Amino acid sequence: MGMQFSVQDLLDLLSPERSVAPKVLQQKLAIEQAEAGEQLQLALDALEKVNLVEKTQGRYRLVFNDEIIAGRLRCSSKGFCFVTPDGPESEEIFVVEGGLKNAWNGDRVLVRLLKKASRRRKPEGEVVLVTERANSTLVGRLAVDDKLLMVLPLDDRLGNLLELVEAPKAELAADQIVEVQIVRYPLGRRPAKSRLLRVLGSANDPTVDLDLVASRYHLQFGFDPALVAVAAEAAALPPDSTGREDLRSLPLVCFAETGRDFALSLVREDTGWQLGLHTSDIAAFVAAGSPIDLEGYRRAFAAQLRGQPLPLWPAALGERAALLPGVDRESWSVIVTLDAQAQVRTYRWTRSLVQVRTQLDGLAEDHRQVAAALTAQGVAPLAAPNSPQIFVELLESLVGQHLAHLHLKGPFAWQAAPEGTEVLDWLRLGRACGLEVPEAEAPLELDGQHYRRWLEAAAAHPSGPTLVELLRATLPAAQLSAEPQPYFERNSTAVAPWARPLQRYADLLIQRLLVQVLTEGRDRKTPRSKVSVDLRASSCQGLIDWPVLKPKQQKDWEEAIPGWIAHLNTRTQQIRQALADLEGFERIGRLSTEGEPLRGLITGVQSYGFFVAVEEPFVEGLVHVSGLKDDWYTYQAREPALVGRRSRRRFQIGDLVKVKVKGIDYYRQQVDLMVVREEIEPSGGGEQPESPLLTAPES
């Protein structure tokens, strides 16, 4: 039987200030069986052995040990592993060879620091204890021999072969794709053991991809019937106008592009515009801690996987909360006053009752006029011109800035600036393709406006689709944080997830926070103060120097928000990776080793070969130097380029080449390419070498 708790659960219950008896820990961990009690004692002994807890008179407390660091393990497919410490500003620790101690990618671990960081090296350490396993199930390829059934994980960052136990061997075949549950993790040299959950299909069956991705990332498309019934009851409730501002007279429109949880109203005034930004009030239907709420929290994020919806809420609830044309709906509205140049002058937010008049395919003329002015101010620099997304990004920036002025913790959305080396690599490629972009070696202060100009320049190039895709790939994914942080792509210092409450659970958290502000927020410093502020309006900004929420509310919120954010970030990243995996499968599935030559752009050159981005479908593959049999090729690092010693034929970034598919590893999404014969004909005569010879790099 597996452990009923993780070591991380145990660590969360211990503190340096107070010693705790094992019986108290048993109660808090809800341990009843004797075997689980023995596991608790083993875990405490292990923590004591690594000097992380101290035992005094049969009671345990945490002790500070600066050589033991907690974090999450991250491994590459090449076997290099790093531990990302829990501390926000701590540097990654490289795990030395032999230092994994049977930990797997994604596990939470305790690592012992062996070497401190130097100017050129990361700190080094070894895993001493796995505190929480990241993978209770996995997907792999079945291997069969006379005695054993083994499973090779498709994710090559997850250990080695697992033994499959209690499986119907006669019904299984080699190379089937299976989902298994891990019943024992590796012990010393003994492999992990697993139990069969289901057979997903044959390794060559293209229909297995969706099941594979759903299993790998624990995605669930449907809902429990009991939840569906509860959602249907909530959906049957009539619109409730209690405590809401009636805004049904405003000319609301919605857009297919922005979904059914966002609508826009725009009214021309003598001195400018009144802009209304409206979102579905999902908080009116989902009570905190209810079964529907817990399921939405677990899912975190809605998506479409190959046309199949992966919803956040049951269909009836989503339909009831959606801002649909012709029906009254509960909403949150932000009413913005714009001057004639579309500069924001004032705004206020309120719970409202609205009715959408129609759905548009794109922005109307007045909308486009305001959108153009907002774009000129730097709002939504990477949004497409005339896109409703410009108004979505304005809305989320206004709400984020308001929360920051109220001194409330998030969740806030943020996005790091692109990694410098990745941007420099793209700039080098862009210049090689003839784009007018800065020198790759020049220091850059990046912002969204740079990216807009580069995207426009790349789109106009003959290899535009490839250059645009590679540039967008340098943008980090957005995340959540408790404090406001810059959002690179939007040129904003505070962004709140607000406009997608039917798609993101984080938006519901912000709605609940503002309900507390609306109903119990403190609009003055002390009860005796005669001067108050309007907590719902921009006029309060810069005037608040007191906690807006009551002390207990503030404490409860601030204690809960880090855990919520950690879960939502992890879950959102899993769904993004699932989407990327499916897109990769679809693209690679369109390739064939028997197909026609493909046009591609050389995007990188190394001593062992060069990478080519095929334009249609967009796939990057490697042309290995061993496949260039027309000459001996020398690697020149400064260019970088591969240069034929005799023919002086060059392969360097920015070159267009014709390639054919040499080999495909479908599940790892790796493609090997070869240059077609006419592309590598030598310029001179002479005998062809049988194999290439790679000489030392030239400086």
From TrEMBL:
<dbReference type="InterPro" id="IPR013223">
    <property type="entry name" value="RNase_B_OB_dom"/>
</dbReference>
<protein>
    <submittedName>
        <fullName>Ribonuclease R</fullName>
    </submittedName>
</protein>
<dbReference type="GO" id="GO:0004527">
    <property type="term" value="F:exonuclease activity"/>
</dbReference>
<dbReference type="GO" id="GO:0005829">
    <property type="term" value="C:cytosol"/>
</dbReference>
<dbReference type="GO" id="GO:0004540">
    <property type="term" value="F:RNA nuclease activity"/>
</dbReference>
<feature type="region of interest" description="Disordered">
    <location>
        <begin position="680"/>
        <end position="699"/>
    </location>
</feature>
<dbReference type="InterPro" id="IPR050180">
    <property type="entry name" value="RNR_Ribonuclease"/>
</dbReference>
<dbReference type="InterPro" id="IPR001900">
    <property type="entry name" value="RNase_II/R"/>
</dbReference>
<keyword id="KW-0540">Nuclease</keyword>
<dbReference type="Pfam" id="PF00575">
    <property type="entry name" value="S1"/>
</dbReference>
<dbReference type="InterPro" id="IPR012340">
    <property type="entry name" value="NA-bd_OB-fold"/>
</dbReference>
<keyword id="KW-0378">Hydrolase</keyword>
<keyword id="KW-0269">Exonuclease</keyword>
<dbReference type="InterPro" id="IPR040476">
    <property type="entry name" value="CSD2"/>
</dbReference>
<dbReference type="Pfam" id="PF00773">
    <property type="entry name" value="RNB"/>
</dbReference>
<dbReference type="Pfam" id="PF08206">
    <property type="entry name" value="OB_RNB"/>
</dbReference>
<dbReference type="InterPro" id="IPR003029">
    <property type="entry name" value="S1_domain"/>
</dbReference>
<dbReference type="Pfam" id="PF17876">
    <property type="entry name" value="CSD2"/>
</dbReference>
<dbReference type="GO" id="GO:0003723">
    <property type="term" value="F:RNA binding"/>
</dbReference>
<dbReference type="GO" id="GO:0006402">
    <property type="term" value="P:mRNA catabolic process"/>
</dbReference>
<feature type="domain" description="S1 motif">
    <location>
        <begin position="595"/>
        <end position="676"/>
    </location>
</feature>
<dbReference type="InterPro" id="IPR011129">
    <property type="entry name" value="CSD"/>
</dbReference>
